[in-house]
């Protein structure tokens, strides 16, 4: 059985780690390189770095940050934000990233998924999908959740898989930062519909929420930010609790 993954997420803005609620009201959470090193030593399975201002401000994620992180950690890490071309991905992978995450650029130019998968391999390509439940329907949102679309989450996720993405990072905007749990019903649909791993994001507040994401949501990995950044949950304690609940994790 494949073990479930615990992934701290570092949202980067102006070179610092930040965290908000429902994608707004950001507060500083520390230096991303220092945090990455701490997480790597404390049992995180992977890390995700998202430059949340990159797409909005039309600038690329700094390769320098990737290089500094790669020097400090020995676990896989994914980098996203403002990635819109083969060249962007090439730079990040050459500087030490293991995977890249694309979001708005994939939606606006779906062929980019095919191009990146063909060039670098599906295992390097994560497609992030931010979605919000509006009048009972899950709709995709772009540019850090600021731009709504009328595209259904599950239809887009299926297309993403068919185009060659290696995994999907699904963030529920309704749950993000609320600490009231992940969107487990939507996760379960994604997990049953698709054959690629699904990373749950948005809503972690307690250890039980992670257990629910894996058991009820059938997620392959669970991603969180503030509960780790502000030491509300220690990764080692979380993994031991998951084990007690029958969830297979790497200790």
Structural description of this entry:
The protein has helices at residues 32-41, 63-72, 86-94, 104-108, 111-120, 153-162, 184-193, 207-215, 226-229, 235-244, and strands spanning 5-13, 16-21, 24-30, 47-51, 77-80, 99-102, 125-134, 137-142, 147-152, 167-172, 198-201, 221-224. With 251 residues, it is of the alpha/beta class. The longest helix is centred in the N-terminal third of the chain and has 10 residues, at 32-41. The chain is globular and about 40 Å long.
Map the helices and strands:
Blueprint lengths: L4 E9 L2 E6 L2 E7 L1 H10 L5 E5 L11 H10 L4 E4 L5 H9 L4 E4 L1 H5 L2 H10 L4 E10 L2 E6 L4 E6 H10 L4 E6 L11 H10 L4 E4 L5 H9 L5 E4 L1 H4 L5 H10 L7
Parallel strand pairs: 1-4, 1-12, 4-5, 5-6, 6-7, 7-10, 10-11, 11-12
Antiparallel strand pairs: 1-2, 2-3, 7-8, 8-9
Helix content: 25-40%
Number of domains: 1
CATH arch. level architecture: Alpha-Beta Barrel
- Provide the β-strand percentage band: 25-35%
Task: Give the overall pLDDT as a whole number.
Answer: 91
Short description:
The protein is an alpha/beta fold.
What labels would you give this structure?
251 residues, alpha/beta, TIM Barrel, eight-stranded parallel β-barrel, 12 strands, 35% helix
């Amino acid at each position: 059985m494949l073990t479930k993954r615990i992934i701290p997420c570092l949202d980067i803005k102006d070179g610092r780690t930040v965290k908000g609620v429902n994608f707004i009201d950001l507060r500083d959470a520390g230096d991303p390189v220092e945090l990455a090193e701490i997480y790597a030593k404390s049992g995180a399975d992977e890390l995700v770095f998202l430059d949340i201002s990159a797409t909005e401000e039309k600038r690329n994620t700094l390769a320098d940050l990737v290089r500094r992180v790669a020097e400090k950690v020995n676990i896989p890490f994914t980098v996203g934000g403002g990635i819109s071309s083969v060249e962007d991905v090439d730079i990040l992978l050459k500087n030490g990233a293991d995977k890249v995450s694309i979001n708005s650029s994939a939606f606006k130019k779906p062929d980019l998924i095919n191009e990146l998968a063909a060039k670098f391999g599906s295992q390097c390509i994560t497609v992030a999908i931010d979605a919000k439940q509006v009048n009972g329907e899950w709709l995709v949102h772009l540019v850090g959740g600021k731009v709504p679309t009328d595209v259904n989450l599950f239809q887009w996720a299926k297309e993403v898989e068919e185009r060659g993405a290696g995994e999907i990072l699904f963030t529920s905007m309704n749950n993000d930062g609320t600490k009231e749990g992940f969107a487990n019903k939507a996760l379960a649909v994604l997990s049953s519909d698709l054959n690629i791993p699904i990373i749950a994001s948005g809503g972690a507040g307690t250890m039980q929420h992670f257990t629910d994401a894996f058991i009820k949501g059938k997620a392959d990995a669970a991603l969180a930010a503030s509960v780790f950044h502000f030491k509300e949950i220690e990764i080692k304690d979380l993994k031991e609790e998951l084990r007690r609940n029958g969830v297979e994790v790497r200790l």
